[in-house]
Amino acid sequence: IKKIGVLTSGGDSPGMNAAIRSVVRACAYHNIECAGIYRGFEGLIDGDFKLMDARSVKGIINKGGTILKTARSKEFRTKEGRQKAFNNLVKAEIEGLVVVGGDGSFTGAMVLNKEFDFPVVGIPGTIDNDIFGTTHTLGFDTALNTVVDAIDKIRDTASSHNRLFFIEVMGRDVGHIALNAGIAGGAEEILIPEEDLGLDRLVDSLNKSRKSGKTSSIVIVAEGDKIGKNIFELKDYVDENMEGYDVRVSVLGHMQRGGAPSCFDRVLASRMGVKAVESLLEGKSNYMVGLLGGKMELTHLDKAIKGKTKINLELLRVSDIMST
Ligand code: F6P
């Protein structure tokens, strides 16, 4: 391999820039060229490439977002779109591709590999931590810190006004952000899609803690949780069925995806970029690099997408005990 391409795709996550920097510098270290591909698979179809050298990625390790931009491409889902993408790769003499993104992006990478036998390696970049084969996806740790900071701030106003706050956090269909940030933020209750305890139990528990002397409370709701139709209906239900609290809702939204990556995410991105490039150079393809048992390990892309990420049951128990 003499030239590798790198793209970021799907929802951005903090640490993507650090990963781009790592891929570019690992290529330079191994004396091969690196092409940055703009706007994910869209840029692959349009041939929107730019050669990047070690100096072109200076000053980005601490930046949120992605300098290569990102997109969710509809055209890449068509055979014609993928053919155009492949032709552009061949024309630019790119012989391997590093895809930084989530499960949708990995599906795209796998199809490219299957149809054209094109070497691909994935780096899991998403705040949701919903990829199998890594204990941490890139951006998860930073998003957690952002959410905990937001919970701390909301707690100030909640306790000043004796209020109950429902705070909705991202995570798509899983509750990793909610569970971890909820424990770290001292939440009274944490509602996640993996565990449905029902509305009555929630109201009971909040009533009990109110009677035990608590004057304010925080409930973290994962966006994928189905206890209420949505967080505003959940708030209305609780408001009608318990007394003593002024109830408010705060939906944190896309601020969870922004900001400077944490130290953990910068180190993880740097390790993953090196491992991705070196895997391609060793002739490995169709794998994702991940952090397992403290080491960089490879998991087949298919397994990374389809494997279930499990909620840590011990965390659930700790969260229960902490809300005593
Ligand atoms: O996958 C990352 C994520 O931020 C999810 O947590 C969220 O459900 C989704 O993307 C939001 O997507 P969009 O940016 O398209 O609104």
TrEMBL record:
Keywords carried by this UniProt record: Allosteric enzyme, ATP-binding, Cytoplasm, Glycolysis, Kinase, Magnesium, Metal-binding, Nucleotide-binding, Transferase
Activity regulation text: Allosterically activated by ADP and other diphosphonucleosides, and allosterically inhibited by phosphoenolpyruvate.
Reactions accelerated catalytically: beta-D-fructose 6-phosphate + ATP = beta-D-fructose 1,6-bisphosphate + ADP + H(+)
One Pfam family, short name: PFK
The name this protein goes by in its record: ATP-dependent 6-phosphofructokinase
Active site: 128 (proton acceptor)
Names of the cofactor(s): Mg(2+)
GO molecular function: 6-phosphofructokinase activity
Binding positions for ATP per the UniProt entry: 11, 72-73, 102-105
InterPro entries per the UniProt record, alphabetical: ATP_PFK, ATP_PFK_prok-type, PFKA_ATP_prok, Phosphofructokinase_CS, Phosphofructokinase_dom, PKF_sf
Documented EC number(s): 2.7.1.11
Residues annotated as binding substrate: 126-128, 163, 170-172, 223, 248, 254-257
